[in-house]
Amino acid sequence: MLEVETVSHDNRVGALAFDTLQKPVTNDDGQRASALRFGDGRVHALFAVLMLLSLNIEGFRNRQLRPLLAQMLGSQEDQITQGKMTYDLRRLRLHGLIERIETTHRYQLTKKGLGVVFIYQRTYARILRPLLSALCGGSTSANSPEAKALKHILSAIDTYIDDEAA
Asked: Which fold has domain 2-124?
């Protein structure tokens, strides 16, 4: 019981998991894959497509991913070559977010992958983008829910820092 409570309240576990995604990874066979950085437009587009394809029971293929990724990036499908898609699939696989379905050319999200994709997408779309819009003087007013939430979050952060520094 104590071990479970320690892990659930240990912020280092989450920090390590986040840092692992932000850095390149190398597997035991020497295959290297670049980072999946939070805030990278291609990574967010890729994750958005993976959320859509996660509902596919039989998994997804490289050729199913390409047109959807091109659409998310606002480019033509021929601008995303098969090589670029293979590169992205290797990155996702080596970071443990997808796995290949045996004896097929299909992939599926891992449990970790589904969680990471969901967290990245929700954090960006539901928290970061609206709050940065409120902070940077977007069309939201000072009385908007986003502006009020931003003030509340900044106040909570200041309180936390003051309490921890004392």
From this structure: Arc Repressor Mutant, subunit A (1.10.10)
**Contacts (Cβ under 8 Å, ≥6 apart) of 140:** 130, 133, 134, 146, 147
Nearest to 89 by CA among 41, 57, 49: 49
Model pLDDT for residues 76-90, shown as the tens digit of each residue: 988 998 889 999 999
pTM of the model: 0.73
Residues 25/95, Cβ–Cβ less than 8 Å? yes
SS3 7: helix
User: What whole-number distance in Å separates Cα of residue 145 and Cα of residue 149?
Assistant: 6
Residue linked to tokens 């599926």? 108
Q: Where do the domains of the chain lie?
A: 2-124, 136-166
pLDDT digits over 130-142, tens only? 777 777 766 556 6
